[in-house]
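Researcher: Good morning. I'm working through a list of sequences from a screen, and I'd like to move beyond sequence-only analysis. For each chain I'm collecting a predicted structure so we can compare shapes side by side. This is the next one on the list. No need for commentary yet; just the structure.
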Amino acid sequence: MREIAGLKAVEEAVGRATEMARPVLYTPGWGGDIQRPTTIASLNILSHIAEKTAQYDCRLVFPTHDPVIMAVAQEVVRESYARAGQGDRFSEDDICYVSSSQFGYAAAVEGMITRLKPASIFLLGTFEAESLILAEVGNTVGAIQIAGTDSTIQLAFFIVACDYTLIGEEVFAASGYLSQDASILASVRAQDVLKILIAIFLVGAILWATIDPTSGWWRF
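Model: Good morning. Structure tokens for this chain:
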């Protein structure tokens, strides 16, 4: 699997927050729910980042708009801290529900960024109009920002305002990239092979439908 710059910078981002004695802030955005593939991929990435913050004894703050996502994220982070042998450092209050209103959520997260001044911010999930608001506020506090979404409209804002951006399917491949789990990597490879086969089939079907085989000459 090719290197993804945003994921390669994860350890640097967590290390920077540790050195500056400032927290890491991670949010999956307002646009998703627990059934959305992007949200599930984001929680897989959260697991890896939470383990890193536990190892470095760095505070991790996770605000969300959905109480179900909050509950799942609490379990994900708790397990990651336990894997790192730092289960006693886990704080349930840092994984919190703020508001289900889009701009209420944006205002709450913006306020947290302004007050806590996180050294690193992860914006990974499904984002809508709040994307640029959060990214701009992150810039004002001098945070390293790693963003990623499958929303093509919001990607433009992240590319402009963040240090690293995961584009589309890079978010889904991220958990395999970070964990190097053989089953996840095999799944990513299988998907890529299937896409290649579908592309070949489509090109073949177009040629078959376009060429006139009854003529003395193949005519397009």
